[in-house]
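Could you help me review a protein record that somebody else here produced? What it holds is a sequence and that sequence's fold in token form. I need someone to confirm that the token line plausibly describes how this chain folds. Take the sequence as given and treat only the tokens as open to question. This is what I was given:
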Amino acid sequence: MRYRLIFVLRCVICLLVWFVDMGCQQSNPIDSDALDGVMGARETLFRADVRNSGVYDTSGPVGDASVDWSFATEAGIFSSPTVAGDQIFFGSDDGYVYALQRESGALLWRFKTRGEVQGSPAYESGVVYVGSRDEFFYALDALTGQVLWQFETAGEVFSSPAIDGNWVAFGSHDGHIYVLNRQTGQVRWRYQTEGFVFSSPAIVGGVIFFGSADGYVYAMNLTNGVGVWRFKTDHEVLGSPAVVNGTVYIGSEDLNFYALDQYTGVEKWRFKVTDRIFVFPAMFSSAAVGNGVLYFGCGSHFLYALDVQNGHLKWQYDSGSRISSSPGLAGNAVYFGTDAGDVFALDSNGGKVVWHYKTGDGVLSSPAIVDNRVLVGSFDRHLYAIK
């Protein structure tokens, strides 16, 4: 009897420990409607927030464009900058992760990986999370750049991480989507798709959304990796989803931009790009979604503005080059770069050019808008603060 009692007590203790652990690790469900107008100010993630909305709760420069400061790295910059407090974080093809002073652009620290850093860092609670083409995913101390932990995948990591609660999620060219404990780097779960995962995930309502080169858009339970739904397109899905007001917006190399029901994956509408495509991949750009309008660019050289309710074209602007950069929306302007090295600010209502700045090489980096500045990288090796 004594041993049976001890056994029962041990089981009860184990169950209590398990429930406490799950309670600490459980992600906080996020309601997409409640996030509207709230999460836009969170520049600490790629595309401005966990929904990948691309909407910044600030105003950007609308006068004549000029460079406030620029910072030179040793190679081109594909990575998009993120901002936390008085720091700016980004990667470069020289293999470094950089931290700059927000106001002046002065170097605070840099961390060397063994591959190009083309994904965008994410910041949470004093830690910078970022992947590299060296196949590792890193957690770095935001003040010093010191490695807190690192996780090895079996493929290059282009995908920018999303953070929700205690979890950090990202994709890899090994075909997996990974969800790790952001404090320890331990795997919560992983899922193998049939293609590489270039797409950067969005997290809304306890569900993670992402695309894969296998042509599918996936929705999976963030806590346990159980599939919620998946939607099949006719080609690779390289861009990142934006999840806004119950709808998932994402493009495919089949030249369609899709609007899918967030909860079921049922198609609401699609917009077919029929303009001439000059270069592939064409649907690299992810959408910015705000004020009832969706903005995206592609290999046709056009930036498109669509009505979010039905996908009807409101206006389009010919930039003269492929748009790989994902647009950012701030105030009444939409900001984006082109492969020819241009940075544009367009009036978000009609597509009229507000200003234009020419860098020395392609701008595939996606702009972050803070402090009435546009922060964006160029393959001319510079990160620019344009005011």
In short: The helical segments are 2-25, 32-35. The radius of gyration is 21 Å. Residues 2-25 form the longest helix (24 residues).
